[in-house]
Amino acid sequence: MRVLVVAASLVLALAVLAGYAERAFVDSDQFANRATAALEDDSVRGLIATKITDEVVLANQADLLAVRPIIESAASSIVGGRAFTRLFRAAVRDVHAALFLREQSTLTLTVADVGTVLVAALENLRPELADDINASRKVEIVERDVGDASAKLAGIADDVRVLAPLLAVAFVLLAAGAVAVAPDRRRAVVELGAGAAACGVLLAVAYAVARGRAVAVVEGAEAQEAAGAVWDAFLADLRTTVWVVAGCGAVVAAAAASLIRPVELGEPVRRALEWIGTEPRRPALRVLRGVALVAAGVVVLVARDAVLSLALTALGAYLVFAGLSAILQLVYRPPEAAPAVAPEPPAPRGRRRLVPALVAVVIVAGAGALLAGTGATTTAAPRGGACNGHAELCDRRLDEVALVATHNSMSVPLPGWYSAAQDAPIDEQLEEGVRGLLIDTHYADRLPNGRLRTYFGSREELRRRARADGVSDEAVDAALRIRERLGFSGEGERGMYLCHSFCELGGTPLGEVLDDIRAFLVANPDEVLVLINQDYVTPEDFVGAIREAGLEELVFKGSGMPTLREMIDRDERLVLLAENRPGGAPWYRSAYDALTQETPYSFGRPAELTEPSARAASCRPNRGSRDAPLFLLNHWVTTDPVPLPSQADTVNAYEPLLARARACRQARGRLPNLVAVNFYRRGDTFEVVDALNGLR
After folding, report:
1. pLDDT of residue 265
2. Is 426 helix (H, G, I), strand (E, B) or coil?
3. How many Cβ atoms from other residues are within 10 Å of residue 512's Cβ?
4. Cα–Cα distance between 562 and 559 in angstroms, integer?
5. Is the pTM of this model over 0.85?
6. Dihedral of the CA atoms 320, 324, 327, 332 (nearest 10)?
7. Strands 436-446 vs 529-535: parallel, antiparallel or unpaired
8. In the structure, what pLDDT confidence band is assigned to residue 687 with cuts at 50, 70 and 90?
9. Strand, coil or helix: 555
């Protein structure tokens, strides 16, 4: 029986270690979650901030040495933020794949886009420094030569996945076998509980020794503190687990012992002290005793923390055992041996005999539930922030949320633009809360003199596009005459630009705007955007530009209408829709075939948008199916060829805009999801959208 008890205790120790390793190290999400949890420690953040400062900034911009404290302060602030946390967690998952899924000789923890996040922080702190930072920089946090360890770890991971459940089953079988073959089954249960307690104590001591050695091999006080924080992020729960195992073993032993006889608290301690203090008679045993005492003294001096942990853990387990035994004996104490002549005492009631076992079951089950509930078996992923600035929006589907959108988002007062429909460039629009972009993409030739000449292919195509934009044939002819007179001729370099009908009147390279969008999404991981492209370029070229900008990984690729939180958790936060020709990739979908419906978009006077009598006509269906989930509310006055900001003051005012939005919602049975306006800073568009979302 004793052999089975010892074997069960050893197998239990292995099962605890294998089960914990399977959860904390083999599971990709748990591995990444625990690594990310280490960022909560100040010393870890400080070391990473120093690494960012050195690699992103000073390695390429040595002249910035004088402002190093400012840059390092900004770097430290981003390390604790949501943006860096998301990037770091993704990088750690890549490291996990390198370690456990494929053979790789070098392990490198590389965090991409750190420069982008750092620039965003510096723009708030010291804008003049932001331009000097390489926003696309990657940072190698850790690099180690692991040789063929990756292949070995992959094999170990496979073994752990199999061994963890097998060892648990083996422990149950060995424990059941020990009880089955024991002459006194209660005594077997006591010894199994004591074995589990001893197993927990020994694992706790081993944990303390291993942690001390792991931290000691790191040089520098700050680095040691960070190493301890990383160790705790991965393994602190193991210490809790083995303490719970020790405690549960003591509980089981106490419950079983209470059915046998009282336990004297001082008896085992007294026997141990007598054994230590008694001089053996045989010389060989005396030498062995002396060597053991010297070794014990050395251990106490060298590993004081481990010895203290062992003593306290053993004492705690023993006190739990003794205390529960005393309590349970009040519930039930077996009758003392009766004199031979006396009649046998009546057998105790069956219910009272079950009380110790029930108490043990409740305590052990409660400890297991507490262990799981406090996160000792799993570590949660980093908590998400508010969705598009409001926690109330997180659980709403995309078609249940209203967003501020800009019409002709790229048409802004920048050099080279001769008319504007918006107050600021797209990067500023995003920073100020715009979450819907309506853009136009064209091919254009950049001429040697720096001007842009729109490429239409033919005059018929030009007129077709102009009519789609509300431009008359007379205006087209006038524009062509002006173009010829002002020197838009010669050979040029063709590219894709954001222009409104004519790039001669202003254009911005598509790549620059996509870079701005990506920078915003990277630096703001809880934001969702919708982009509708009035496309006059091929879908293949547009998709290629999206991929070149690194945006494909952020594009929504699913189906149906997800909640904002679901989109954020999957990090697919950019919905891309094409007005004319979708394709090139499954995620570049048609705006009006099935996903979007809209109102008319051509209004010549403010009264057509503000007068109650005009609302029915302004809300009538235009493009898109009546069943489409997303509803685009077009709300601007068309004044060919130059938009008038004063009219935006009128139509974007709170009362008329909210009244029209609510009227269209009632008429169409849909919440206006994209409230698209000109000159978004004028009027009260943001307040109206908040009202539609029920936030005011």
Report:
1. 47
2. helix
3. 16
4. 8
5. no
6. -160
7. parallel
8. very high
9. strand
Cα separation of 86 and 568, whole Å? 11
Question: Which backbone phi and psi does 328 adopt, to 5 degrees?
Answer: -70, -30
Q: What tens digit of pLDDT does each residue of 215-255 get? A: 888 888 888 898 888 888 888 888 888 878 877 777 777 77
For residue 130, give both structure tokens: 């932001």
Contacts of 495 (CB under 8 A, 6+ apart): 443, 444, 445, 446, 509, 510
Other beta carbons within 10 angstroms of residue 215's beta carbon come to 17
Q: How far apart are CA 582 and CA 576, in angstroms?
A: 10
CB 646 within 8 A of CB 690: no
CA distance 193 to 257: 10
Does residue 249 contact residue 198 with C-beta atoms inside 8 Å?
Answer: yes
Cβ pair 419, 643 in contact under 8 A: yes
C-beta of residue 30 within 8 angstroms of C-beta of residue 237: no
Neighbours of 151 (CB within 10 A): 15
Name the DSSP class of 387: B
Residues 380 and 33 sit within 8 Å (Cβ to Cβ)? yes
pLDDT tens across 414-473, in order? 888 888 999 999 999 999 999 999 999 999 999 988 888 888 877 777 777 777 666 667
Of 76 and 615, the structure prediction assigns the larger pLDDT to 615
